[in-house]
Each structure stands twice: as structure tokens, then as C-alpha cells.
Amino acid sequence: MADTFKLEIVTPEKKVVDTAAEEVQIPGKDGYLGVLPGHAPLITELAVGEISYCENSTELRLAVAWGFAEVLPDKVTILAETAERPSEIDVERARKSKERAEQRLTSGDTTVDVERALDALHRADTRLEVAGKNNSKI
């Protein structure tokens, strides 16, 4: 069995990752999914979360939001609405987004779309978490 598989992470704007990976952790709608070379084929919907993968024994991370992942024994393709490297994340913008979402959730306003506010809060938290991790390669 091979020690790596091809990993591609693509957004509508660009190809973010195109590499050989030893493993990947994907935020699926029903929880995180770990993939190693030779994994059984599957397709899953992505949630907001962090993708982590190992390339040349180095762990790398991305903040992602929504999309799909196709897993094959020798290739993983992730089609994400957004995918950001730690260096691409605007931390101040993410903090402000988090504050706005928290204010909406605690306002007591019955017209607030709670699900949307929770999604915004989760996305901001993920972006801040990924940006805060020491990751010199990305």
C-alpha cells in the first residue's frame, strides 16, 4: 500500500492545495473524518471547520467552510466554498465577525436568524483558531 495519496483542495477562486499527503482530517457535516492512504471510497458534505493534513511529516492547517469531499483510495478532492491558510486570515475581521455574531445571539431579538448567527460564530472561531496556530510552512 502507498504511504501517501494525492490531496487537492479547491475553491471557486483557486486551487489551494495540490500535494502528496500522508493523512487528512476533514470536517464533515456529522463530525470529523480521518483519511489515510487506501481509504474506502466515499463522498461527504463539508461543514465549517479546520482541515489538517500531513505533508512530508509536517502538519498543515486550513480554515474551510462548506462544500464536498470525495475520498478515493489514492486521492482526496475537497471542493470548498472557502479555504484559508493561516497567513491569509484577517484576524481583526474574524474577531469583529465573532463579536457581531455573539451580539446577535444574545440580543434577545426574536427576528434574529439563530442558525445563521451560529454559523457565523463557528466560522469566526475556526478562522481565529487556525490563524493562531504556529504553522510556518503555510
Descriptive report:
With 138 residues, this protein is an alpha+beta fold. The chain has two domains: 5-86, Sandwich (ATP Synthase, domain 1), CATH 2.60.15; 87-132, ATP synthase delta/epsilon subunit, C-terminal domain (Single alpha-helices involved in coiled-coils or other helix-helix interfaces, Up-down Bundle), CATH 1.20.5. It contains two helices and eight strands, in the order E-E-E-E-E-E-E-E-H-H. It has helices at residues 91-106, 114-132, and strands at residues 5-10, 15-21, 23-28, 31-35, 42-46, 49-55, 58-72, 75-84. Strands 1, 2, 3, 4, 5, 6, 7 and 8 form an eight-stranded mixed sheet that branches. Strand 1 and strand 2 (15-21) form a beta hairpin. Helix 1 (91-106) packs antiparallel against helix 2 (114-132).
Compact overview of the structure:
The protein has 138 residues and is an alpha+beta fold. Helix content is 25%, strand content 44%.
What are the main properties of this structure?
alpha+beta; 25% helix; Single alpha-helices involved in coiled-coils or other helix-helix interfaces; 138 residues; 2 domains; ATP Synthase, domain 1; elongated
Write the layout of secondary structure elements.
Layout: E1 5-10, E2 15-21, E3 23-28, E4 31-35, E5 42-46, E6 49-55, E7 58-72, E8 75-84, H1 91-106, H2 114-132
Parallel strand pairs: 1-8
Antiparallel strand pairs: 1-2, 3-4, 3-6, 5-7, 6-7, 7-8
Helix pairs in contact: 1-2
